[in-house]
Structure prediction request, 113 residues.
Amino acid sequence: MEKIVEQGLLYDFYGELLTEHQKNIYEDVVYNDLSLAEIAAENGISRQGVHDLVRRCDRALQEYEDKLHLVERFLTIKNRISVIESLADDADLTKEELMKQVRALSHQILEEL
Prediction:
């Protein structure tokens, strides 16, 4: 997964666990695509300070994911739902085959929850 997409997902799931200061700076890096120099000037800290804070946030968010696996579960469920949608579009499947596969996937999704 592309780093910026991964950062966004981790932030979406765990960002509220960061301090307000961390959230503001992390959002500027990930969502607003500001440079370290721009963020440093705006917040009255050094570029190195911004860099270190972003690395600490990345590490904290990844540690939350390593313990809770919410992003992993989300992506797995999203993938299974995509499979269900593609099955619904498959004209070669009989109604019984479709129902059997949809039930199997829905059970897998429920197990993930």
User: Anything to note?
Assistant: The first helix runs from residue 3 to 14. The mean pLDDT is 92.
